[in-house]
Amino acid sequence: MDTSAIVIDFLLRKYKADQKWTRMVLEQLTEEDIVWSPTPESNSIANLVAHISGAVYEWFETVYFAAPKNQDRTTEFARDLQMSKEQALELSKKSYDCIIQVLEMMKANPERLLEQPYRDYSTLNGALDNHATVLEMLLHQFRHLPSHTGQIFYIAKMRKGQLNWES
């Protein structure tokens, strides 16, 4: 098996598992839990779900699914961000589905991992420059998104005490 196939298969397993665990956690929460934050300066689960969605949208949907570029992502961290449980579940599903779809595209054509799809954009919010390869983008998100899903799980545990991890 070639290295690119190993990396793609690993990322697919990881994102599918993260999608499952995030859905399981969100399903256990109430509407109030979704918008609650531990302190006035802290993010709520709604903020974190919106941020994950914004990142996936900017990094993948604009490139692979012709979504218009969004210049303003500040609402992701608005202190009064409102989001229903159903909206949180849908945004989370859409985000993970998008990444999984991109990985499936790469699996069919692993040579595309070295493409630089952002050649026409000036930057990617400073995280990577416009010469980033698809592999760099996927690895950046592999580092970035789990930190936020971990925050979602932690806040959910603060609200519920114990979570059910059985599917």
What does this structure look like?
Helix content is 60%, strand content 2%. Helix 1 (3-27) packs parallel to helix 5, helix 3 (45-64) runs parallel beside helix 4 and helix 3 packs antiparallel against helix 5. Strands 1-2 form a two-stranded antiparallel ribbon. It has five helices and two strands. The chain has helices at 3-27, 31-35, 45-64, 85-108, 134-160; strands at 123-124, 128-129.
Summed up, what is this model?
The protein has 167 residues and is mainly alpha-helical. 60% of the residues lie in helices and 2% in strands. The protein is built from five helices and two strands.
| Helicity range | 55-70%
What is the N-to-C succession of helices and strands?
A: HHHHEEH
Number of strands: 2
Task: Average the pLDDT over all residues and give the rounded result.
Answer: 88
* Spatial strand arrangement across the major sheet: 1-2
- What form results from the Cα inertia axes? globular
* Strand-pairing-aware structural class: mainly alpha
Supply the number of helical segments. 5
**Percent of residues in β-strands:** under 5%
For the biggest sheet, the summary is: 2 strands, antiparallel
pLDDT < 50 stretches: none
Rg computed from alpha carbons, rounded to a whole number of angstroms: 16 Å
**What's the N-to-C terminus distance?**
32 Å
